[in-house]
Amino acid sequence: MISLFKYELKRLLFNKFFIGLVIISAFYSHQIMYSDIILGVANTAPFSGWSYGEYLAKMLPILLVALLFFISFLYSKQEKHVQALTNTTPINPFLFQILRCITIIIAFILICIIPIGYSLWFYKVNFHFTNFKSLVLPIVTTLLPAMLFVFGAGMIGGRFHQSIVFMLMLVVILTNYIPLPYSLDLFGENFFTNYTLSLDIVEPAFFIPTNVLIGKFMYGLTGVTMILIASIPKKPNNH
């Protein structure tokens, strides 16, 4: 099983698509920091949780499109041939699919390290800010629920046809421009931009309201449920 894990991870990371996504995410991180975040968001400091959450929210479409690219590999014609071969081995198909999901999550984390690492370097060099612990909450609440939900949606869609995964990429990009209610705002851009303006407080401490936390939790739980359902092998067609 460990050998399979290493093989799947190597196959996912050492290809031109992964390298291209790394370059794009690095370039986009630089652009967002210098154009939207450097002056702060909603009258808060550029290194506040609010501004950092906005930075991550703007990065999410690129990161989630990368995630969907990884998922699309599972449902390509080549992968279907590989799956046909693995089905003839004593490997548990459900566990094998979960293993492949773990490799995709690792690839997603590695992509996320690019904008996160760049932002920490940016804050230290430009603002001498090193209190990086204060940024953990916006990182977890912004990236994790969105990753799980889109991961699950991509896997459910991919079971029907690979093209649905590519359609979800367009949905992810377009959704970023829809001003959803805070509790339904998967990316969080509307929340990070506008919530502080309603508080009438100069530089409020960063926090996540209960209704927003519940919404994030439900997105994450729904995503995990879809991942598990999509990992269950299809019953063979006897016709």
TrEMBL record:
The chain crosses the membrane at residues 12-35, 55-76, 97-123, 135-157, 164-184, 204-230. Keywords: Membrane, Transmembrane, Transmembrane helix. This is ABC-2 type transport system permease protein.
